[in-house]
Design a protein that fits this description.
- The structure is a single chain.
- By secondary structure, the protein is α/β, with parallel strands linked by helices.
- The chain is built from 13 helices and 18 strands.
- Strands 7, 8, 9, 12, 13, 14, 15, 16, 17 and 18 form a 10-stranded mixed beta sheet that branches. The protein has a 6-stranded parallel beta sheet with strand order 3-2-1-4-5-6, sandwiched between helices. A two-stranded antiparallel sheet has the order 10-11.
- Helix 9 runs parallel beside helix 12.
- The longest helix has 26 residues.
- GO terms for molecular function: glucose-6-phosphate dehydrogenase activity.
- Keywords: Carbohydrate metabolism, Glucose metabolism, NADP, Oxidoreductase.
- This is Glucose-6-phosphate dehydrogenase.
């Protein structure tokens, strides 16, 4: 077991910390992979020692975690109020750390950037680690500037640009599916695959997240970060080893080859916003009437882009990435559609559906649908579906991410050049949308989206 670490959470009073980060920490502490952790929360809002401990206790209880490491962290945790951009406050936080500190920025990118600027006036202890939430930066220029600032503070191997999607059981299993069997890898190319779709459609609406979401929208919230990383896992060539250097280099190579369809955001992107409707019997107001939303921004709640991967493996295969809120059905999956056989022998009847591999992201499932004959008429083609569910991992996705951070393993974090590259892919879309070159369509909350989108998905 490695030495004790101190986790300092900026934005500790926010929803992300209590709902995702702290429960993930609890699963890590309970696992056999844990190190002793001193937990320090900080934020501008005041919290008494009892209030803070209650937040941590409830977050841990949500995962029903227990054990000596959990108890030790609960017993020693503390909250220090202050302005995170004040160097004196930062010094106080570091002075309170009794082990190598991990500074976790559970904050929007601009505030995280401001704190890093302030950290330049502070002497950081040896072994300091910095961990950032997505998005990393707000565009290409800010991501480049933040990378420059961060690398003046600590070396790249001590920087974790987290994406909790990479900690999902199913996403991690894509690696095994791709590279550990002879069934899929030989046919994982443009000769055999017709198209690939990555969907993350949610039935949830805004859920009181206007402060963040109205600035980001569906494109930045989901596609720029999570879905491009999943695309990279689906399309990357086999790394020499599943380690941070080889794996992340393979991911970087394929994303450098990824670009918008036709290099034209007007034909490669669509956007829409939900109007008032009903989901599961619950009335939802129009997004633009939600509390905290600035209608003049024209923020989208449904975004779709089509990209191409310009490599020999994938030449000519269309990739669609889509994410939206307040839709009538939850659809969180990678859908690989295979090309039909070149010829169906005479004597076989019917028109079989396309063979598909569906990797469901939440809940964690995999489903292979293939053409087969059988049933009443053995010469009539039909479809057979093989499916399997994955057990929940030992750790939550945030627990997996924290495990990498505490053990100085950046395998599941985003390398600096990849963070910039993801912005480079979507920035032409952002610019085209700001200029009004792509219309902001509408769809009723609880529907499948704008009517003319349904046939394409």
């Amino acid at each position: 077991m490695t030495d004790k670490r101190t986790l300092i959470i900026f934005g500790a009073t926010g929803d992300l910390a209590s709902r995702l980060l702290l429960p993930g920490l609890g699963t890590f502490l309970q696992s056999g992979r844990a190190v002793p952790v001193q937990l320090i929360g900080t934020g501008r809002s005041a919290r008494s020692a009892e209030q803070w401990k209650d937040v941590v206790t409830k977050s841990f209880a949500s995962q029903d975690v227990k054990g000596p490491e959990v108890d030790a962290t609960l017993e020693s945790t503390t909250f220090i109020q202050g302005d995170p951009t004040d160097p004196e406050h930062l010094k106080a936080l570091l002075d309170a750390a009794d082990a190598e500190p991990i500074l976790y920025f559970a904050l929007p990118p601009q505030i995280a950037s401001d704190i890093c600027e302030a950290l330049q006036g502070v002497e950081l202890p040896e072994g300091t680690t910095l961990a950032f939430e997505k998005p990393f930066g707000t565009d290409v220029a800010s991501a480049e500037a933040l990378n420059k600032t961060v690398l003046e503070l600590v070396p790249e191997e001590r920087v974790h640009r987290t994406d909790h999607f990479l900690g999902r059981t199913t996403v991690l299993n894509i690696i095994g599916l791709r590279f550990a069997n002879r069934l899929f890898e030989p046919i994982w190319n443009a000769d055999n695959i017709e198209k690939v779709d990555v969907f993350y459609d949610e039935t949830l609406g805004l859920e009181n997240r206007a402060q963040y979401y109205d600035e980001a929208g569906a494109l930045v919230d989901m596609i720029q970060s999570h879905l491009l990383q999943i695309l990279g896992l689906v399309t990357m060539d086999a790394p020499a080893a599943i380690d941070a250097v080889e794996f992340r280099s393979s991911l970087a190579r394929v994303l450098r080859s990824t670009r918008l369809k036709g290099d034209d955001p007007k034909i490669a992107s669509r956007r829409a916003v939900y109007t008032a409707g009903t989901i599961d019997g619950k009335e939802l107001p129009s997004y633009q009437d939600e509390d905290g939303v600035d209608k003049s921004r024209g923020t989208e709640t449904l975004a779709e882009i089509e990209v191409e991967v310009d490599t020999a493996r994938w030449k000519g295969v269309p990739f669609t990435l889509r994410s939206g809120k307040a839709l009538g059905a939850s659809r969180k999956e990678v859908l690989i559609t295979f090309k039909p056989v070149t010829r169906l022998p005479s004597g076989l009847s019917g028109r079989p559906k396309a063979d598909t591999l569906r990797i469901v992201l939440n809940p964690d499932e995999i489903e292979l649908s293939v053409s087969a004959n059988g049933g009443g008429n053995p010469f009539e083609m039909g479809q057979v579906t093989l499916s399997s569910s994955f057990d929940d991992g030992e750790l939550t996705p945030y627990g997996e991410v924290l495990n990498g951070i505490f053990h100085d393993d950046p395998l599941l974090s985003i390398r600096g050049d990849v963070a910039e590259r993801c912005w480079e892919i979507v920035e032409p879309v952002v610019d085209a949308w700001k200029s009004g070159d792509v219309p902001l369509e509408e769809y009723r909350a609880g529907s499948r989206g704008p009517a003319d989108w349904e046939s394409s998905s």
